[in-house]
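Annex B.
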Amino acid sequence: MDIVHFLLDFILHIDKHLEAFVIAYGPWVYALLFAIVFVETGVVVMPFLPGDSLLFIVGALCGIGLMSFPIACTVLIVAAILGDQCNYSIGRYFGPKVFQWEDSRFFNKKAFNQAHGFYERYGGVTIILARFMPFIRTFAPFVAGVAEMNRGKFTMFNVVGALIWVLGIGTAGYFFGNLPLVREHLEKIIWGLILVPGLIAIFGAWRAGRAEKARAAPQP
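DedA family protein: predicted structure tokens.
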């Protein structure tokens, strides 16, 4: 419970924790930022680490001169790209081993073929949009690897998604993160960055599930 409490406090008050770390350890903060983003995007069992809120707060701290904006963005972009590549490679490595199985309760060849077709057709958009959705951005590159999405295509959209994600949210934090109104409601904004994209993803999955059932239902 102590670990859960610390993680929750770190996520909701990441501005204070990062500021204290910068004051205490200076440039080592860039190593910390790299580690957080790489682990969140590159290790499929770590989807709960902060992502969007971290980028926003980093931008805000750069805005008041505690960090270098170009260095921070470069470190975060590299971490995001390498993290997704690592996650994709893990899925790609384990995928063929699983696909050797016959249909069972743990694996369904038809489901794999559908996932493979989906990622070949819509995978680029999925990889980019997943960057802005907590939890989903951790699993999307892994599933892309399992579904054997073309590596070159994945890499291209991985880089594009990382650039848009880091620069977009980081720049927003740089220009707006230190406004009095934003500082006053920062915890609510962090909750919004966590919950709103997640709810959108859940709603989209629900809509997609209903559409699939409607297509599969026998026509009168």
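Residues 103-107 have pLDDT under 50 and may be disordered. The CA atoms of residues 2 and 96 lie 39 Å apart. Further annotation is deferred to the next reporting cycle.
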